[in-house]
Design a protein that fits this description.
This protein is an alpha/beta fold. The protein has two domains: 196 residues, Enolpyruvate transferase domain (UDP-n-acetylglucosamine1-carboxyvinyl-transferase, Chain), CATH 3.65.10.10; 204 residues, UDP-n-acetylglucosamine1-carboxyvinyl-transferase, Chain (Alpha-beta prism), CATH 3.65.10. The chain contains 14 helices and 24 strands. The strands form six sheets. Strands 22-23-1-24 form a four-stranded mixed β-sheet. Helix 6 runs parallel beside helix 7. It starts with a strand and ends in a 5-residue tail after the last strand. The structure holds uridine-diphosphate-2(N-acetylglucosaminyl) butyric acid. Uridine-diphosphate-2(N-acetylglucosaminyl) butyric acid binds next to helix 1, helix 5, helix 6 and helix 12.
Length: 418
């Protein structure tokens, strides 16, 4: 429940990156000792992934470390299960990240094939083709992908498109394969680099991450490691946007400006001032919101995971903003909800034309996916009157206690138990 119209100001902390923690958790399946992930936030997706690792025989604890930060510890157990059941995969597609590690370490995996989701069809053909090139046999039975291999062998794999978890899955599998794997047209996302850093700490031989060619020389075994996870660059954009949409002044501590250049550039062009300050990024806006165009693209382009939040911001712009979504085919679910608040947005195919309005008005709204929920919260912060966002379990998948952090910045926002 949000009472809009308050200007946000102050400092808040950015959590560890969800999309770096999930692959790191999957990578723990490759290790012979415990993997500790420092800075893992309390998120639904991380709890779901912990459950999955538990089913696969690992022991997972999530608690406070000696330094006061949150540490997720994953110790390999004795059990050798290799199945990711439908009940979990259907709630979290990232479960597919266990495919490569299970196959590499245990020679087999049975994973429920993820179906489509709220934002698009999201096939995993690139993951499967890569593993097949490395010698895996795969088949589909009763909705499950069954894969097996005696030992994977290194291969040359060229992706048809940039895929983040596809690159991560193959990088993990290749770490224990026999020989050298070259991944071409690999994803450049900072989360891929974060995973490479962890795998190296575990003893893997990887180079080239952050470029579109990654070379992995397989090793016989990997050991446990302690890994400080990168800051969440999507949250690092969402929190300052919450400030900017209210004409506020918010500093996101822990944010790494160099990993969000595309967002910083659009914020500046919209009239916000963005400064790197020691340990964080400060964003403030005083004048009108200038409408700017945005086209999502793989990193280092504008992230699809910030598109919905930026659209909420542009709905209050001083002109027209054209927003194109090029990664997912159905990622405009927030548009119909924003319209209920008075936003003027027309959608044609993968393009939304946003005609800025002087004000939004609060309304009851339905969250449909993680980033759409964040966009509705941002709109609610700026709107006149009260906004009620339903189904906020979507928000809890990827933002830890967002309402607390926003209220510490001056927002009037509370979680209402039903
Ligand atoms: N694609 C295929 N075949 C494949 C793999 C991908 O056609 O085998 C297509 C997808 O359908 C999509 C495009 O390639 O059109 C890119 O998808 P990608 O594989 O990169 O997405 P992902 O790895 O499933 C990750 C993030 C998403 C984020 C995207 C894009 C994780 C766990 N998830 O998904 O995060 O939107 O990359 O940056 O890292 C979120 O956090 O809200 C979220 C959805």
């Amino acid at each position: 429940m949000i009472k809009g119209g308050r200007r946000l100001s102050g400092t808040c902390r950015v959590s560890g990156a969800k999309n770096a923690v999930l692959p790191a958790m999957a990578a723990s399946l490759l290790a012979e000792g415990p993997v500790e992930i420092v800075g893992a936030p309390r998120l639904r997706d991380i709890a779901t992934f912990s459950k999955l690792l538990g089913i696969l025989g690992a022991e997972v604890t999530h608690g406070g470390g000696a330094d006061g930060g949150e540490v997720l510890r994953i110790a390999p157990g004795d059990a050798r299960k290799a199945e990711a059941p439908y009940e979990l995969v259907k709630t979290m597609r990232a479960s597919v990240l266990v495919l490569g590690p299970l196959l590499a370490r245990q020679g087999r995996a049975r994973i429920s094939l993820p179906g489509g989701c709220a934002i698009g069809a999201r096939p995993i053909d690139q993951h499967l083709r890569g593993l097949e090139l490395m010698g895996a046999r795969t088949s589909l039975s009763e909705g499950y992908i069954e894969a097996s291999a005696d030992r994977l062998s290194g291969a040359a794999v060229t992706f048809d498109m940039k895929t983040v978890t596809g690159t991560e899955n193959l990088m993990m599998a290749a770490s224990l394969a026999k020989g050298t794997t070259v991944l071409s047209n690999a994803a450049l996302e900072p989360e891929v680099c974060d995973l490479a850093r962890l795998l190296r700490a575990m003893g893997a031989d990887i180079e080239g991450e952050g470029t579109d060619e990654i070379v992995i020389r397989g090793v016989r075994s990997l050991h446990g490691a302690r890994h400080e996870v990168m800051a969440d660059r999507i949250e690092a954009a969402t929190l300052p946007l919450a400030g900017a949409i209210t004409g506020g002044d918010v500093t996101a501590m822990g944010a790494d400006a160099s990993s969000m250049n595309a967002v910083v550039e659009k914020l500046r062009r919209s009239g916000a001032e963005v400064d790197s300050v020691p340990g964080g990024v400060r964003v403030r806006r005083e004048g009108p919101i200038r409408s700017v165009n945005v086209k999502t693209a793989p990193y280092p382009g504008f992230p699809t995971d910030v598109q919905a939040q930026f659209m909420a911001y542009m709905s209050l712009g001083d002109g027209f903003s054209i927003i194109s979504e090029t990664i997912f085919e159905n990622r405009f679910m927030h548009v119909a909800e924003l319209r209920r608040m008075g936003a003027r947005i027309d959608v044609s195919g993968n393009t939304a034309a946003v005609k800025g309005v002087p004000a939004l008005s609060g309304a009851p709204l339905m969250a449909t996916d993680l980033r759409a929920s964040a966009s509705l919260v941002l709109a609610g912060l700026a709107a006149k009157g009260t906004t009620e966002v339903l189904r906020i379990y979507h928000l809890d998948r990827g933002y830890e206690a967002l309402e607390h952090r926003l209220s510490s910045l001056g927002a009037d926002i509370t979680r209402v138990k039903e």
